[in-house]
């Protein structure tokens, strides 16, 4: 298929599953009492989001169980060894964890906006935002505990979910600590990205395999698929910030550079002797010109830093797609390959 | 036994298990990397604490499995249906959850001190404190996932742990919301206390019964034992604040009243028509005199509010001790009764 047809197909697949996931969120995370707490907990979930992680989870389930994403029975996936398991609940649990991390990260980074609306601590207050995140945290485990099927598999899924959450906290802690480091290496940065972002993709892809009683080999391959494509996604984010025109990005191109945000690209350039801090020294997002950004990008291109990051994202994506060889050959496994491509090709 | 001998016995039992719990915390929650995150996560745990919830958990385990608190094999409790389960890990998990709630509550209440040291957000910073709490949260689930034994029981324990955490968040949310309410009833207050504090005692007592494969009747009785004695503990706290001399309390007697903290006592008094807000209107903790507090306490006594709270604490304690009838008659079950008494008799 052409790039365009592939993207159309994956967008349709994401859109179809997003609707199903949104319906399931309303059922699995109802507006309980105290209402203000649950409103705050659901605020970011209701504000939107592509549901990429739940989509990945559902596609792994569809590929392994060979079922289609439609109808009322979508929640009951047949396991390899007989019985049924509610993979939609597992997908919701992953999205609920993602939402908890966004709420707490926004407090730590003092970010005002999220998904086009106020961050929870802005819309409510910091105490409510802390508690909303904490509530989503335990709700995610409650939801995962009730997927049905073999208790041993559910326990393993919860073990994976909890160790993933620990890694996310470690990654966020490193991210905060890195702000005051001037000797950071690309390897350290990649380790941080893996923990902070990629492991939740890994869990999203691996947990359905665990719950469906798949072999360890399949579980491990799905985890690697998720981690690698999740890492590629983050790295490509840094590339796109420098290479996509501002009007397509929906924000100033090069804003990471203007705001002195360290990325894989700047860390590589430093190693090549580039004075990264001097690239856009006097600029702000409001005052910087396209010509200044072009000049900065040229310097980064000249030492191969942009290619370095782009190639790493492409390599990780190729690796992640190879992991899919353990899956049956069906539409869902094809879509997982498309999804990996989409993660590094998308606009903003 | 006399009151004094009982207290001596229960303090010795708590002290003995505290040492074992502290050793287990060091093993189950090691100082990992990033070190600053794990230091912050362990900071409140290392600052002390009586380990009352783990002690209750271990005593339920000892009572049901008929084992003694000693030796290297203490971690391997025999289950009713054969096999072994690490109840010490379950006890540590409960304490780790307790510690997470303290760290986040201190941020929300902007409390400077905890267990005689700085609160985590004061000693480190708010971001680190949020993350430290989040890390303990997932660590608690990781630790609980690895207790061994029957996976169905472990899953049930994790289900109970997660629903308990949700209730704790709800309780804390109510507590914050109640600060701006002037029409609070004693029933609403008791509901808040149950969720915010007592359910974790319930989980601490019930989870060992779940893990040891005990009958539902025993599990339910242990949960009620924990919730009722935990509620009694909180109610008695409010009584002691008014009735124990300042030198024994280690802080100004009546400080709740001076600081306009609503308690079961003040809510009862309001229903009796007492102008609670006028009791110590102009005072601060620094300026209030013993005579002023005596006068306020007299007014609360005159309408029966202190007796109301004291009797409720005693009734709940008596109820909680009746729950222990389902346990075998051994030293550990006797100690659980003593523990319930201790919770409402202790000094500060």
Chart the SSEs and their pairings.
Two copies of one chain form a homodimer.
Chain A: H1 3-28, H2 35-46, H3 52-65, E1 77-78, E2 84-85, H4 87-109, E3 113-114, E4 117-118, H5 120-123, H6 126-145, H7 151-178, H8 186-211, H9 216-243, H10 246-249, H11 255-258, H12 264-271, H13 290-302, H14 305-322, H15 331-345
Antiparallel strand pairs in A: 1-2, 3-4
Helix pairs in contact in A: 1-3, 1-4, 1-15, 2-6, 3-4, 3-8, 3-15, 4-6, 4-7, 4-8, 7-8, 8-9, 9-14, 9-15, 12-14, 14-15
Query: Which pair of chains forms the biggest interface, and how many residues does each contribute?
Result: A-B, 42 and 42 residues
Oligomer: homodimer
Overall pLDDT of chain A: 92
Question: Any idea what the radius of gyration of chain A is?
Answer: 20 Å
CATH topology name of chain A, in short, is Farnesyl Diphosphate Synthase
Instruction: Kindly state the percentage of residues in helix of chain A.
Output: 55-70%
Describe the structure using short key phrases.
homodimer; mainly alpha; Farnesyl Diphosphate Synthase; two-stranded antiparallel ribbon; 4 strands; globular
Summarize the structure.
The structure is a homodimer of 348-residue chains. Chain A is mostly helical and 348 residues long.
Would you kindly provide a written description of the structure presented here, covering whatever features stand out?
Chains A, B: Pfam families: polyprenyl_synt. Chains A, B: Keywords: Magnesium, Metal-binding, Transferase. Chains A, B: GO terms for molecular function: geranylfarnesyl diphosphate synthase activity; metal ion binding. Chains A, B: It is an enzyme of class 2 (transferase). Chains A, B: This is Geranylfarnesyl diphosphate synthase. The structure is a homodimer. Chain A has about 350 residues and is mainly alpha-helical. Chain A has one domain (about 5-340): Farnesyl Diphosphate Synthase. Helices cover about 70% and strands about 0% of the residues of chain A. Chain A has 15 helices and four strands. In chain A, the strands form two sheets. A two-stranded antiparallel sheet of chain A has the order 1-2. A two-stranded antiparallel ribbon of chain A has the order 3-4. In chain A, strand 1 (about 75-80) and strand 2 form a beta hairpin. In chain A, helix 4 runs antiparallel to helix 6. At the A-B interface, helix 4, helix 6 and helix 7 of A face helix 4, helix 6 and helix 7 of B.
């Amino acid at each position: 298929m052409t790039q365009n047809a592939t993207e159309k197909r994956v967008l349709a697949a994401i859109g179809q599953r997003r609707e199903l996931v949104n319906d399931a969120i309303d059922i699995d995370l109802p507006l309980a009492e105290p209402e203000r707490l649950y409103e705050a907990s659901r605020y970011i979930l209701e504000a939107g989001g592509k549901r990429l992680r739940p989509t990945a989870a559902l596609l792994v389930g569809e590929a392994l169980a060979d079922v289609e994403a439609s109808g009322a029975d979508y929640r009951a996936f047949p396991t390899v060894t007989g019985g049924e398991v509610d993979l939609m609940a597992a997908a919701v649990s992953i999205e609920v964890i993602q939402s908890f991390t966004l709420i707490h990260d926004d407090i730590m980074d003092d970010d005002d906006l999220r998904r086009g609306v106020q961050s929870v601590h802005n819309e409510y207050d910091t105490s409510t935002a802390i508690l909303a995140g904490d509530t989503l945290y335990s709700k995610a485990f409650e939801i995962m505990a009730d997927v049905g099927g073999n208790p041993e598999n559910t326990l393993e899924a919860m073990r994976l979910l909890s160790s993933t959450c620990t890694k996310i906290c470690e990654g966020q802690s490193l991210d905060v600590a890195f702000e005051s480091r001037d000797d950071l290496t690309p390897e350290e940065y990649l380790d941080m990205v893996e923990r902070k972002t990629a492991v939740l993709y890994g869990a999203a892809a691996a947990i359905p395999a665990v719950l469906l009683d798949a072999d360890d080999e399949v579980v491990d391959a799905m985890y690697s698929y998720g981690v690698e494509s999740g890492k590629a996604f983050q790295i490509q984010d840094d590339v796109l910030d420098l290479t996509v025109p501002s009007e397509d990005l929906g924000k100033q191109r090069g804003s990471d550079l203007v705001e002195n945000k360290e990325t894989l690209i700047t860390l590589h350039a430093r190693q090549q002797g580039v004075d990264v801090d001097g690239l856009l020294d006097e600029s702000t997002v409001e005052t910087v010109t396209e010509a200044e950004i072009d000049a900065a990008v040229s310097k980064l291109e000249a030492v191969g830093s942009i290619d370095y990051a782009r190639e790493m994202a492409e390599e990780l994506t190729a690796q992640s797609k190879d992991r899919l060889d353990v899956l049956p050959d069906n539409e869902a496994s094809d879509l997982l390959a498309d999804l990996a491509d989409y993660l590094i090709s998308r606009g903003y």
